[in-house]
Amino acid sequence: xxxxxxxxxxxxxxxxxxxxxxxxxxxxxxxxxxxxxxxxxxxxxxxxxxxxxxxxxxxxxxxxxxxxxxxxxxxxxxxxxxxxxxxxxxxxxxxxxxxxxxxxxxxxxxxxxxxxx
Length: 117
Fold this sequence. Notes:
The chain is of the alpha+beta class. It is built from two helices and five strands. The strands form two sheets. The protein has a three-stranded antiparallel beta sheet. Strands 1-2 form a two-stranded antiparallel ribbon. Strand 4 and strand 5 (112-116) form a beta hairpin. The longest helix has 13 residues, at 66-78. The protein is globular, with a radius of gyration of 15 Å. The two termini are 21 Å apart.
């Protein structure tokens, strides 16, 4: 499976040495797709508004629990083709009130990797 390669700093499209859109392959493409799925808010994808985490479920006002957010992130990761299992560890809330984390992924090939968000 291939995906368009995203710049790790800007999370925008990248170009290859020939100035064409860069692509990535497994296992990196699956990890990038998991990170993208977790960073997407519900309704943000105009081609499929059912994708994403529900930002209106209390994530921003503090009423949502961290276990709920962790479960939502794991569910988003599991929606990515090639993922057999996902376990999320949250980091935060930080001093700037942001929350990040890492997701340990088991691919359908049996390989394990992790991705931060």
